[in-house]
Amino acid sequence: MLVQRALPTPPSTRGSKSLYLTEAGQQGLTPERKMLFVGQEPANEHVAQGLQVAPGAPIIARRKMFWANSVPVRISTSYFRLDVGENTRLDGEGFVLPTLQAAIEDLGYRFGHAVETLTARPATPYEADLLEIPGEWVVQVLRISYSTEDTPIHALETICAASRHTFSIGQAVGSDQF
C-alpha cells in the first residue's frame, strides 16, 4: 500500500474539503478519516518553536487518523496558539467545515507563507500502535503557516508510515527548475 503525498501541495488540493481524501481518491484508493482528539494539550518542543510559544504552553490540538483501503497510513494534528483559536470553531468538536483554512481566514488571518520540515525517525510507541508498524520508521512533516503579518497561525504535523508513502516533489509555480 503506497499513498502519494505531493510537495508542495497543489492549491486546488489544498483548498479542497480534505487534502487527504482528495489526494487518496485521485490515486484510486478508498480513503477514510476519523477525528481522534480535539482539545488543549501542552506544546511539544518542535511545535512550540514553530508557533513561537514556550514548550509546555497550552495549545489547541486537532488530531486525525487516516486510512487507505482500510490500512492505517497517517496521523495528522493541527495545532493553534490559544490567541488564534480559543473559543472559535478551531477548538470545537468534529471536522471544521467547509475547511480549516476558511475558518482561519474567517478569524481575520490571511496566509502569507509556510515552512515545511520533513524528518525521518523511528515511530514512537503511540504512533507504531496506531499505524500498526511496530519497529518501523515514520516521516514527520511539520508545516508552519504564517499570516501576511508573519504570525505563526497554524502548525500541521503529519506522521506518515514511511513504508506506505511516496513523496512526489513538484515545481514551484513559474519555475522551470528544481
Automatic annotation (TrEMBL):
Organism: Nocardiopsis terrae
Entry annotated with the keyword DNA-binding: yes
PANTHER family given in the database record: GNTR-FAMILY TRANSCRIPTIONAL REGULATOR (PTHR44846:SF17), MANNOSYL-D-GLYCERATE TRANSPORT/METABOLISM SYSTEM REPRESSOR MNGR-RELATED (PTHR44846)
SMART domains: UTRA (SM00866)
Name under which the protein is recorded: DNA-binding GntR family transcriptional regulator
Keyword DNA-binding: yes
Entry's Gene Ontology molecular function annotations: DNA binding
Domain spans labelled UbiC transcription regulator-associated: 26-166
Alphabetical keyword list: DNA-binding
Matching Pfam families: UTRA
SUPFAM superfamilies: Chorismate lyase-like
InterPro entries in the record: Bact_HTH_transcr_reg (IPR050679), Chorismate_lyase_/UTRA_dom_sf (IPR028978), UTRA (IPR011663)
